[in-house]
């Protein structure tokens, strides 16, 4: 254990500061496709009973009209966030007729590209900009890739805790900048070690043959309708999922928030020849917001992002520039098909210990060599993480995935113990022990369990996914909301519909001018 990590653990373990560990926030965003009873993509509009996808605080859509996104309020204890996520699922399950919530990250059976419905948010300028952005994703990357679902884990530490660490280091930075740069240091460590999360929680080793739409691949055939890799953990996070060669040079290794923001700002202003050839309009209709490398910052596919709650119409980089980093968003997690909510409490507890380790451990500046090493470790793990004897690279030296993983768990045990001291229990330590079992026996990983269950369904990804979706629907249906809880969701849905109507009725100005102004909204100091 290095001196900095040990010192910070000791500092926060003291009676004066230990309580600050409970003051951070957790939030979960879970994506899930609406599918028909036969496992095909639902093609109807977003259910009115679920409210407005534009303005509802907890139920929205991502890329497709069929791709629901459930957003929990932020909570100090992730168990409370999961309880909220459970209520959202129960309400939604009861208000989508005979449709099901798809249980997998990789999509169900999809129709032809032209038939996949892009999310619609109404006729307000904000609603239309969200819709046109998604049209741009369609012409740039195809619609099928955008139907992949994931789970985002939002994590923050108390601002008072960051102030304690700042005072301890006698940093010359102000509170805002110290907090921001500390989150960037967390992200550097996350990049070093996120291969471990893919081994432990990757749950997409197989996919529907039809998903690839004739794209070249090196997958093995498991059955007539299913492709896989025998040792894969997460094809979703491989080059078959959320990857894009045009974005490969966007984000060089960064060691401070300013360089991150500058890289994103350049990408949203840099013309890209392939997208210029497409243009922004077709037959008089907007088909993408601009012809730059990124339409907006969120188009950058990252496994983790520094975040700040934004105001309506504000760009993410504007918020970061003005107010600094508020939390981080972990974006590489697959949907756990064995959990109705897509994630378990034990997984969430481990994530808390892992991310606290990333925050407190020494995080030296990175460079291109270290960045390529981390990227390579991640890529090997998602495609062959369960291969016996798989070797990764640590500081230029070969090391087995199992050996490095067990070493990391030993270090993370210190933060799990620190978190457990808050409630005088072993909830985080027990969650860590579950992960150790996976490193000692690859058959206990979610990806291995998926392949085992596929074998029970004729090696059919669709059959397995459909059965899990049905089981989850029955689980939610057996636990209806109370009358009071149901009434509150109905109230939120109606209020969101009313808010959208009001936005559209009070609209003024020209959409073309709105887009032009939005495209220019980058802080001037980042435009150099």
TrEMBL record:
Highest taxon in the source lineage: Bacteria
Organism of provenance: Oxalicibacterium faecigallinarum
Pfam family, any one: Glu_cys_ligase
Annotated TM spans: none
Catalysed reactions listed for this entry: L-cysteine + L-glutamate + ATP = gamma-L-glutamyl-L-cysteine + ADP + phosphate + H(+)
Record protein name field: Glutamate--cysteine ligase
SUPFAM superfamilies xref list: Glutamine synthetase/guanido kinase (SSF55931)
Entry's family note: Belongs to the glutamate--cysteine ligase type 1 family. Type 1 subfamily.
